[in-house]
Design goal:
By secondary structure, the chain is mainly α. 77% of the residues lie in helices and 0% in strands. The chain has helices at 2-18, 23-37, 40-73, 78-90. The model has no long low-confidence stretch (mean pLDDT 76).
Length: 103
Amino acid sequence: MRYRLTFAVGLVVGYVLGTRAGRERYEQLKKSARQVSQNPAVRNTAESAAQNGRAYAGKAFHAVSEKVSEKVGDKGPGSIGARVRSLRERGQGAEDDWGTSNT
């Protein structure tokens, strides 16, 4: 899906840059894109997709971190085990180095 969207955006950009219709056609496309993006149905769909993505990413993070700490954290050398455990604890609702949350 991501590659299709990237392709579509590239197609639109290529059309806009390559068209001979000029500024008028560009303004029409810009107005159409703005209307679509401000459509409540589109906004609701985009927001629900973002929320679902965050939820799935959080579940995946916890599943992977638990498996890594079980497999590597307890069996590896002490320094690796301590690092894995500290990363796991840090991931529990903490902020990362850039000031963003891990949700």
